[in-house]
Amino acid sequence: MLPEFAANADDALPLWLVARNGPVPEEAAGDWVKASGFSGKAGQICLLPDAKGGLRGALFGMGDSAQSKRGRFVMARAASGLPAGDWRLADLPEGLDPDEAALGWLLAHYSFDRYKAGGGAKARLVAPKGIDIDRLQAIASGEFLTRDLINTPANDMGPDALEQAARDLAAEIGADIAVTKGDALISENFPLIHAVGRAGAQQPRLIDMTIGDSGPTLVLVGKGVCFDTGGLNLKPGASMGIMKKDMGGAATVLGLVKMLALTGATDRMRLRVLIPAVENAVAGNAFRPGDVLTSRKGLTVEINNTDAEGRLVLADALTLAAESAPDLLISYATLTGAARVALGPDIPPFYCDDDATATALQSAAMDVADPLWRMPFWDPYEPMIEPDIADVDNAPGGGMAGSITAALFLRRFAQGAGRYVHLDIYGWQPKPAPGRPKGGVGQGARALLAALPEVLG
């Protein structure tokens, strides 16, 4: 169930926000607060009893400026830590972003309960004055869809189920959808998608969704590898443990589409969504190291590692997208371990040759607490992806610049689009954090949602 804000402020309990070692508001002060040891450190809660032993409100610690730089969505801790019921902010301290506070509260309500009962009722917040309630609930709705898709194991979220999720969303928002799968991928000229997915238990496919008939054109491409064994270059067991998340790019794109539709953004653009959905599996017909495959674009690709399959399925989808010369083409993919080594799980790198687009996206990412970091399409590394016997190499050796060379590979297939942006996301929260329980998580969707008015015009 998606969270909602509490409707009636009159019946809600007050919540006072207190900085670390800051003054406690007079109406909430007393010996009880002193005795409890409340100091205002980030996430600390002090429940305030009334004369009859019930609750009259609570204090919540906001920490200090140094602590605030070390995390985001601190208010999400209040949603998780307060007793169930309705709460209102008794004050809005200077410097508090009410949108981030309210969104963090909503995101804290997420739990993945498909196979196990959730944690029960949580505290609800009366929406602070001045926020756009519908927009924040739309963002939370899209994010929850992304998390659910990633968290669902591959036995229930293979290519068939991912296609059905896309069809369900299309029906909800009034989009058109078409799917090319199985041997039709060969006849329709998507050879790389077919080659990667043909060994899977379910047929590989390309999902193609469209909505909107006027305005600038935006194409979103999401990597939909529903499980990645590594293929014949089989991953070690420890590396395979969370590979249900390898469709995190597709999940993020679908969540973003829901945000765009629910906020009305799709009324002002022509949006297309392309998701190559496959399993990278091991079987007698699996593609092999050393194979040379011909892509939709006509470029030949030498396969030096079958575990670098994501860029292959994206290549055919990007080629199709670029054929219509969209104003903006964006790919989301859980693509490289190199990106995690460089920036860790929280900060996805993104690549873009257009400075104005990149600046708008990075600025929006910081504004909405959805961090991104720009990395370069470094042209001097182009020879690294050029093997001896084919046009491009899907896994250049040497172990250096892995995220950059993957982005350079993709850029070759995106040529023809007005502008191209690639995001190398992780799609997974390895440890619980405020508003982000352990498991699947969207990255870069809220940043793009905020940046699009400037980027698309």
Automatic annotation (TrEMBL):
The cross-references to Gene3D superfamilies, in alphabetical order and at most eight, read: Leucine Aminopeptidase, subunit E, domain 1, Zn peptidases
Instruction: Tell me which Gene Ontology terms the entry assigns under biological process.
Output: proteolysis
Q: Which residues form the Cytosol aminopeptidase domain?
A: 305-312
Q: Name one GO cellular component term.
A: cytoplasm
Which keywords describe this protein according to UniProt? Aminopeptidase, Hydrolase, Manganese, Protease
Q: What is the superkingdom listed in this entry's lineage?
A: Bacteria
- What InterPro entries does this protein map onto? Leucine_aapep/pepB, Macro_dom-like, Peptidase_M17_C, Peptidase_M17_N_1
The entry lists its GO molecular-function terms as: manganese ion binding; metalloaminopeptidase activity
| The UniProt record lists the keyword Protease | yes
- PANTHER family found in the cross-reference section: LEUCINE AMINOPEPTIDASE-RELATED, PEPTIDASE B
Similarity section? Belongs to the peptidase M17 family.
Instruction: State the name under which the record lists this protein.
Output: Leucyl aminopeptidase
Which species is this UniProt entry from? Paracoccus tegillarcae
